[in-house]
Amino acid sequence: QVQLVESGGGLVQAGGSLRLSCAASGFTFSWYVMGWFRQAPGKEREFVATISGSGGMTLYADSVKGRFTISRDNTKNTVYLQMNSLKPEDTAVYYCARSVGYGMGSVPSQYNYWGQGTQVTVSS
Q1: Is residue 51 packed enough to be buried (19+ CB in 10 Å), middle (13-18) or exposed (0-12)?
Q2: Which one of 9, 57, 93, 117 has the fewest CB atoms closer than 10 angstroms to its CB?
């Protein structure tokens, strides 16, 4: 069965960096677009970044563009999110997700498998 397991979250000061990982299993990883989303308390889940199956195409939310980098290693069935220059407003639970199809969507309904999430807390 499809499994997505995130890791790498934690507590960091503003301006710091974290690297999230998402280990995938149960499907042919390179066939699927993968995405990162986040959800802060009391807010809706929001798009962060997405990457094509080959890794050649990426898309970012405006709020993280220039600070976050999504990448993948298809030999390790893992997708990453490198987060630099973190801000308190980046505090959220971060989820990785597998897309329904080939499109690089920014809407949660375009993804049908989700990890359990990893907490990122940025202190000011």
Answers
A1: buried
A2: 57
pLDDT digits (tens, 9 = 90+) for 89-111: 999 999 999 999 778 899 999 99
The token duo for 24 is 């995938």
Sign of the alpha-carbon dihedral angle for 104, 111, 19, 46: positive
By DSSP bridging, strand 10-13 and strand 118-123 are parallel
Quick: pLDDT tens for 68-94: 999 999 999 999 999 999 999 999 999
> What is the rounded CA–CA span in Å between residue 119 and residue 3?
18
CA gap 16, 68 in Å, rounded: 12
- The rounded distance, in Å, linking the Cα atoms of 122 and 124 is 7
The answer to whether 96 and 108 are in contact (CB under 8 A) is no
What would the pLDDT profile of 25-56 be if each residue is shown by its tens digit? 999 999 999 999 999 999 999 999 999 999 99
Q: 21: exposed, middle or buried (C-beta count within 10 Å: 0-12, 13-18, 19+)?
A: middle
